[in-house]
Amino acid sequence: MLTCSSRSSLAAIVIVAIASVLVDQRPLVSSDDDAPGTSAQGPRLEHLLKERAATARKALDLTILRMKAGAVGTDALREPARLALEAALEAADSKKERVKILEDFRAAAKDQEKLASGLVKAGQSDESNLLAARAERLRIEIALERAQAGQSENKKAEDKKAADPKDVCILRGVVEASASARLFGRVTGVLQAQRVHIGDRVKTRDILAELDVPDLFG
Questions:
Q1: Where are the alpha helices (DSSP H) in 25-73?
Q2: 3-state SS assignment for residue 119
Q3: pLDDT in the model for residue 39
Q4: Across the strands, what pairs with 71?
Q5: How would you classify residue 140: left for phi > 0, otherwise alpha for psi between -120 and 50, otherwise beta?
């Protein structure tokens, strides 16, 4: 039978558990994706974000090595991978960089899901690990879709701004060469060959054309 004290403790545990789940469901890409990159937030903060990203990545790499050595299972990768992804996204300087990070982690999540599937088929792992790996891969896929959609919307806005008639000035005129030369042959005759055409570049002593002049040798 639960006493008042044990019920209070149980309620506290439940509240903490729910809070942990809610915190863990925060989106990978902030809705305020137009915020400035790390370079605009001050050198100290930029350094801290980069250091956190490097530390989280190193922790993930060490966990991968332990998994390959058989010391831990595939489920042990989930939390280090999530921390590394979130740290890398927060340290990114641009939307383009965040998209690249998400693409890299999506590829890794697909590999982890494939590995978990193989272990389930071999009877070496529980199906819950496969479902968790799939859910994480889908979480990254959703974040990537949102990031790419935001990037596409920004490009459309930039293209629209570039094509705005208010920024276009139309002037009419005639374009003429700054220098020109009128050429005449010293003798008249029949054009036998034309070596160059309009727009070709020529230099001194280049042969432009050949004339057949019968009267010159008559």
A1: 43-68
A2: helix
A3: 53
A4: none
A5: alpha
Nearest Cα residue to 86 out of 63, 60, 118, 61: 60
What confidence category does residue 40 fall into, taking pLDDT thresholds of 50, 70 and 90? Answer: low
Q: How far apart are CA 58 and CA 60, in angstroms?
A: 5
Collapse the DSSP code of 182 into the 3-class scheme (helix H, G, I; strand E, B; otherwise coil) and give the result: coil
Express each pLDDT in 81-95 by its tens digit: 989 999 999 998 888
* CA dist 32 → 45, 47, 98 (Å): 18, 22, 13
Amino acid type, 145: E
* Torsion sign, CA atoms 34, 39, 42, 44: positive
Inter-residue contact 75 to 126 (CB < 8 Å): no
Least confident of 172-176, 201-205, 213-217: 213-217
A 10 A CB-CB count for 30 gives 13
Structure tokens at 172: 């009419």
